[in-house]
Design goal:
- The protein has a domain at 49-75.
- Helices cover 69% and strands 0% of the residues.
- The protein contains five helices and no strands.
- Helix 3 (33-47) runs antiparallel to helix 4 (50-62).
Length: 75
């Protein structure tokens, strides 16, 4: 089992609340789901989180994102 590196809900609960509100706003903004997942995939690349990158690229594919755009995302 993987050890949790940071309990952000305990350390910065106000930040977590703000991030969840931002997520709610973006979901209601009309931004296409595939593009939303591309943005999250790029953030995961920058953060170096392989777990999140795997999850968001799978979600992007389910939302109709093309392989071409996923492949060139890091450029």
């Amino acid at each position: 089992m993987m050890e949790q590196r940071l309990n952000y809900s305990k350390i910065a609960p106000d930040t977590l609340i703000a991030m969840l509100e931002l997520k709610k706003y973006v979901h209601g903004s009309g931004l296409e789901r595939s593009l939303y997942e591309l943005v999250k995939s790029r953030a995961s690349q920058i953060n170096g989180c392989a777990y999140c990158l795997d999850m968001h690229t799978k979600d992007a594919r389910k939302a109709g994102e093309t392989e071409q755009r996923l492949y060139i995302l890091s450029t």
